[in-house]
Amino acid sequence: MQGSANLNLMIKAARKAGRSLVKDFREVENLQVSSKGPGDFVSKADREAERIIKEDLRGARPSYGWLGEETGEGEGEDPTRRWIVDPLDGTTNFLHGLPHWAVSIALEHKGEIVAGVVFDAAKDEMFYAEKGLGAFMNETRLRVSGRRNMIDAIFATGVPFAGRPTLPATLQDLGRLMPVCAGVRRWGAAALDLAYVAAGRYDGYWERGLNAWDMAAGLVIVKEAGGFFGPVREGRDVLGSGAVIAANAELFEPLCKVLREPA
Total domain count for the chain? Predict the structure, then answer.
């Protein structure tokens, strides 16, 4: 895919940050880790990855706004565009030596995500998409799965930890969904869960209690791969509510029927 200058910039920044993270991942036991809250850690590697991305993106597009997990929000001279960045999605996996984590970068224009990159550096899988141009993993075009029946489908989610308030609702979701599907996976990286829906590896995904940077890039990748997404509670904004359902075209409505709360 021949992407725009912005998409190419995002891919370059993700690769650069990914190389830095891979280097630290090989020495994960020696990382200096500080607690950011129960079960939620931040490492030197995480902060360095965001510094690399921010330096590249804001250096090339200084007028764009910024929303990053580690450095927060910053306005730009151009109020219509901003970068939304998670430098290390799957931090807990990273810190435990589990090779399932990613760099996530999205570009928002007038409230819409128009480009997204999710880079799984440990496996060298670059998922990316741009509005109207399709979704890709490395050089391969992505399409969501073609499964039509819930009982044949595998779904992904995130199970809240350390007493997070969304745990009871998620347990209820699992109780309703697991009897009518082929299985549920919990791999601990929301950006990759969405990328895997786009690649047809999962048939659908849902999660509550997310931040915008967890899912922004993944949402446009799902959409450009032919998938659908929406809020868990109808009428809400997905990024604003922090709760999302995503699936292929055939299973989106059945999955919503099982999981969705009334407005």
Answer: 2
